[in-house]
Design brief:
This protein is of the alpha/beta class. It is built from 13 helices and eleven strands. Helix 2 packs parallel to helix 13 and helix 6 crosses helix 10.
Length: 352
């Protein structure tokens, strides 16, 4: 029986054998970004295959204005801001959430509800960051808070959904993306059919997992399809992703949230790409509860996080990368998040 390393070497040879054209492949998921860098997958591919990182890091695509709003909330004496760890070091105008007494790092949205129960004189605001993967759990948490009468808990919903952003990227003038590595964990919730909208473009998409062998198999499929000018949306993660997805999670999500416009870092306002709470759950919507408005905040001077998220630039093309912008002194969110493209390139020494 062949080892996984032997299978990867064979796949590398097979990809080089079938890929005869110059092709651009975007990996949409931040976990794919890290895994490709960690396993040195670019070095296993022929020079004619160019892998581009996309807007798959939820912290990175959160707008500068939303980050600034979260920091401002943390300055209020009557508030506690609950957040996942990746948000703590994202800078806005020289400030971050890290080290503030009014900020609590949590590992589950349910921890934020417990924080609210333990601090009844404080307003606990949870920063709702994430895509279709995390949004159902946050929806279930809001339902739980409502049923338990935890009225000092609310969510600042900065959630994003994948399809409309990909529409923007693929329909942009000069777009040259022909293949997509699609996120397996999003697909586990949404199902493979969720990505059928891609059929309106001349692209091939493969839903895949995160191990090196998963991605090499999917890259082989993409190279084969694109060499033959076949444009299919294929599920290569069938033990996790079904055609219809997790129907229960979808129902909870639809019960609590509805579509809204959302501001994406590097892209701008995308209609229908966000999630806001339905009227039945507005008591837990921090924007409405506290009459909050997201300010317009300029990106840090010279920071290329926006174009990098759009696949227009690579980290090495940013004047800050590895110099004034490092994990210890980040200028933009792509260097902060564990799923950020700049963080992946820096940590694993990617030079392309």
């Amino acid at each position: 029986m062949r080892s996984e390393q032997e299978k990867i070497r064979i796949l590398s040879t097979q990809i080089k054998g079938v890929s005869k054209k110059n092709i651009n492949i975007m990996e949409v998921c931040g976990t794919h970004t890290m895994s490709i860098a960690r396993h040195g997958i670019r070095s296993l591919l022929p020079e004619n295959i160019n892998i581009i990182s996309g807007p798959g890091c939820p912290v990175c695509v959160t707008s500068a204005g939303d980050i600034h709003l979260a920091i401002e909330l943390s300055k209020r004496d009557d508030f506690l801001v609950a957040t996942f760890g990746d948000m703590l070091k994202v800078p806005s105008q020289g400030e971050t959430l890290q080290g503030r007494k009014s900020v609590a790092m949590i590992y589950s949205p349910l921890d934020a509800v417990k924080l609210a129960k333990d601090n009844p004189k404080k307003e606990v605001v949870f920063l709702g960051i994430g895509f279709e993967t995390t949004a159902p759990l946050i929806a279930a948490t809001i339902k739980s808070a409502k049923s338990e009468g935890v009225n000092n808990f609310s969510v600042l919903s900065m959630h994003k959904t994948v399809p409309v952003a990909l529409d923007v990227i693929l329909s942009a003038p000069g777009n040259k993306i022909q293949g997509l590595l699609l996120p397996g964990h999003v697909g586990a919730i949404t199902g493979r059919r969720y990505f059928d909208f891609l059929k309106r473009y001349q692209v091939s998409g493969i839903v895949t997992g995160f191990a090196a062998i998963n991605m090499m198999e999917s890259l082989y499929l993409l190279a084969s399809h694109l060499n033959e000018e076949r444009y299919d949306i294929v599920n290569n993660y069938t033990h996790i992703v079904s055609e219809e997805g997790n129907v229960c999670a979808q129902e909870v999500l639809a019960e609590v949230f509805e579509e809204s416009d959302a501001e994406w870092r590097g892209i701008g306002m995308i209609p229908g790409s966000g999630l806001k709470m339905r009227s039945e759950f507005e008591a837990f919507d921090a924007y409405k509860k506290f009459s909050l408005k997201t300010p317009k905040i300029a990106e840090a001077a010279g920071c290329l996080c926006g174009p990098i998220l759009m696949g227009k630039n690579k980290p090495s093309e940013c004047k800050h990368f590895g110099k004034t912008c490092t994990p210890a002194t980040p200028v933009g969110p792509c260097m902060v998040s564990s799923e950020g493209t700049c963080a992946a390139y820096y940590k694993y020494g990617v030079n392309v």
